[in-house]
Amino acid sequence: MTPIIRLRDVVKTYDPAATDLAAIDHLDLDIADGEFVAVVGRSGSGKTTLLNLLAGIDRPTSGQITVRDTDLGALPESALSEWRGRTVGLVFQFFQLLPTLTVAENVVLAMDFVGTVPKSRRRDRAWDLLSRVGIEDQANKLPATLSGGQQQRAAIARALANDPPILLGDEPTGNLDSTTGAAVLKLFAELNADGRTVVLVTHEQEVRDFAGRQVLLADGRQAVTQ
Questions:
Q1: Residue 203's pLDDT is what?
Q2: Cα-flanking dihedrals φ and ψ of residue 58, to 5°?
Q3: Residue 219, phi-psi category: left (phi > 0), alpha (psi -120 to 50), beta (remainder)
Q4: Residue 124: what pLDDT?
Q5: CA-to-CA distance for 175 and 154, rounded, in angstroms?
């Protein structure tokens, strides 16, 4: 399968003077188009740093990250932000929904930032996405009135707003009980079955039931597939 994501000799050091304390240390990794990959490892292994590099939130200290033939290191900050909005959907552990907007408005706002969806279609698309994740009946409510699982489904709908080919999740079930977390992982698997590439950072053992491959990080230096 053709890699949609490719890392070559990637190093990420937050303190340039501390070359022996790299969060990601000379990492090579390919992720194929349409894969569901779980990135696992102990705290401090570099999982979240890797996800931030894939999203273009962080830049590598050295090495190359290519996503869909785009060299992220070659993009200026303004172009990187636009690239991220069109290419990557991000889902976080603590949802990060704007509390003063309704669930539907949160999804529409993601479309407003990028502009790929015509303004006349954004509200209908938000409803369609909320229906896709099973919470269309919560569309007009504020996030605080929803359960944790419902808020995470809303966050996934927001991540899908601009139809990105890649979904990235940073511990998306870490703030949920086991039953709700399994339901969210199943939803990611369904979205992957639709053709999206999914990369999740997770501590959850249950991810083995859903992901096609696991990448184990240890001190940012080693990627072992299972």
A1: 81
A2: -110, 155
A3: left
A4: 97
A5: 14
